[in-house]
Each structure stands twice: as structure tokens, then as C-alpha cells.
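During the reporting period the student researcher (J.K.) took over the structure-prediction task from the postdoctoral fellow and processed the backlog of single-chain submissions. One of the processed entries is reproduced below for the supervisory committee.
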Amino acid sequence: MVKNSIEKERLKAGLTQVELAEKVGVTRQTISAIEGGDYTPSVALALKLAKTFKASVEELFALS
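J.K. obtained the following C-alpha cells:
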């Protein structure tokens, strides 16, 4: 299972799920699923999320 800090980073950035979804080109449901641990994003999406938060993929996602 992959744990992530997407929700924490999103809230820190003051973004809603909809706003983050629009920034990275996915649906709000996808962001919700990632935050809930029900969906592991593709490498491309993980890189977009990392770029959005000015973080590394390793900072956002960790294997448990």
C-alpha cells in the first residue's frame, strides 16, 4: 500500500479538491480516491502533483 500526504499538502496550499484536480487535469473524484488511499496515481500524475506542491514524489508518496 502507498501512503501519501496529498490531502495535507492540498490543505496547506489552500486548495479544494476541485481546484487541485483542475491544476493536474483529473477529476475531483480522482483526487478524493488518492487522498483516501483507494487509488495509486500514475507516474505522470504523481509528477504533476509533485510539481504543483513543489515537492518530490518521494515526499508525497511512501510505501508502507
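The committee noted the following: The chain has five helices and two strands.
J.K. will present the remaining backlog at the next meeting.
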